[in-house]
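RECORD TYPE: inverse folding
INPUT: structure tokens
STRUCTURE:
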């Protein structure tokens, strides 16, 4: 089969159940999810060794879930059956909690960077936020947009932030703290002490 079809030469592309302009809100949203998936793949190539087997398993699942979510956004059929469910969101929440137990204490804002894999995960995090914003825009413009996709992207950006910190920690690379940051995050102990005051 040929990879090029020439059907998009006039600025339109196919959805599941219709055709739209290539710059439509729906295409922008799921196209950004595709971009995000590419950065996830790049991060995976930068994670080597047995110390990252759990993160690689997470990221492989995330790649498939992003493909599911992108397919859901591309679906404009009258009767729609969506693939992305609430279960992956619950898994992300569980993994965030587990990784936060391992992560070094966080007190100040941090800047993207550290190891190459962590930097790529931070890029993925910011692209996730853009995908979420574009999905919200789509939800405002059109009916029947699956809210699960937006919720998943919201949780995914948190996961990627924590995962980037874990990669640096496991490699012995310190987080790149924002030099003018005040102490904006408190530990559980500090929160309890403040409550007592």
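DESIGNED SEQUENCE:
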């Amino acid at each position: 089969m040929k990879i090029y079809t020439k059907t998009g030469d006039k600025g339109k592309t196919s959805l599941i159940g219709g055709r739209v302009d290539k710059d439509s809100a729906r295409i922008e949203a799921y196209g950004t999810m595709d971009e995000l998936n590419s950065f996830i793949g790049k991060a995976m190539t930068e994670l080597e060794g047995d110390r990252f087997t759990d993160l690689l398993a997470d990221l492989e699942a995330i790649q498939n879930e992003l493909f599911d979510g992108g397919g859901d956004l591309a679906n404009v059929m009258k009767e729609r059956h969506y693939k992305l469910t609430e279960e992956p969101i619950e898994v992300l929440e569980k993994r965030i909690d587990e990784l936060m137990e391992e992560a070094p204490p966080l007190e100040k804002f941090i800047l993207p960077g550290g190891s190459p894999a962590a930097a790529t995960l931070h890029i993925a995090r910011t692209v996730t936020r853009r995908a979420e914003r574009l999905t919200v825009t789509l939800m405002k413009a059109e009916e029947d947009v699956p809210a699960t996709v937006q919720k998943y992207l919201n949780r995914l950006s948190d996961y990627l932030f924590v995962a980037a910190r874990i990669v640096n920690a496991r490699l012995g690379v310190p987080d790149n703290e924002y030099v003018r940051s005040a102490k904006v995050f408190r530990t559980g102990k500090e929160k309890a002490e403040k409550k007592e005051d």
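NOTES: The two ends are 71 Å apart (CA to CA).
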